[in-house]
Amino acid sequence: MKHYLSTLTIAGSDSSGGAGIAADIKTMTALDCLTSLVVTAVTAQDSHGVHAALPMPPELVTAQLETVLSETPPMAVKIGMLPNGAVIHAVAATLRRFPSCPIVIDPVMVATNGSRLMDEEAIGTFIDELLPLATLLTPNIPETACLTGLPVSTPDELRTAALRLRDMGARDVLIKGGHRKGTTKDDLLLTGSDFHTFSAPTLQTTNTHGTGCVLSSAITAFLAHGLPMPEAVRRAKEFLYLALLRGKDYDHGPALGTMENGQWTIKNGSY
């Protein structure tokens, strides 16, 4: 019998099932975690974009969080879509009242098709109230530029931006390099005083819907299993890369590797 660890995802729903809470649950389940959830927004979404979104009332977000945290304290928490300042405040205020555990924050601001998923005026609330709670912050390059106001084109600029995010309160920072062109995709991790670079060959695929959700959820699961941060990130990167290799072209659009027979099936094996 497998031993399942408790994790929690705080994020929006994706009606296509490819990103958001659906991707979080599939990923954490594949990595032997029993996942509770707090819904922050409901979206009308498919693999091509977000067509509508409705934020949850902040009092309902608080009620969900209090109920989950009181009965099933998680070993690690992942935070994704937070649509506005009121929801951000509700999440931050509630988490501060409960015993701490690793918190992975994926600052979901804009969808791939350009649809805004966080109100522009909420960014200040995110920086002031939630970012300091991050055990690990996982911005992509545009999100890094938005949060820091710094250029992020060169390796030195990325290191400077990572240090700025740490100075803003995040304990560790993983800047994802998926938006950069080239034969490899390089992610930069700052943990303690050390930088780590994780490289993978660039894959020619359009099956990328939900990649950020899968990566942050996999890191959360590996942290729940007790792995140190660099190893958790390395394993999560491997998991995502294999899922991308297993991506399928469906009639309605792209998707990452899928769950089959209780396992996340990938091209070269399964988790």
Instruction: Report the radius of gyration as a whole number of Å.
Output: 17 Å
Order of strands across the widest beta sheet?
3-2-1-4-5-6-7-8-9
N/C terminus separation: 16 Å
Give a quick account of the main beta sheet: strands, pairing sense, barrel closure.
9 strands, mixed
User: Residue share in helices?
Assistant: 25-40%
Please report which band the strand proportion falls in: under 5%, 5-15%, 15-25%, 25-35%, 35-45% or over 45%.
Answer: 25-35%
Order of helices and strands: EHEEHEHEHEHHEEEHHEEEEE
The parts where pLDDT drops under 50 for at least 5 residues are 250-255, 257-271
Shape: globular
Whole-number mean pLDDT: 85
Question: If you had to describe this structure to a student in words, what would you say it looks like?
Answer:
The protein is of the alpha/beta class and 271 residues long. The protein is built from 8 helices and 14 strands. A 9-stranded mixed beta sheet has the order 3-2-1-4-5-6-7-8-9, with helices on both faces. It has a 3-stranded antiparallel beta sheet with strand order 12-13-14. Helix 3 packs parallel to helix 4 (123-130).
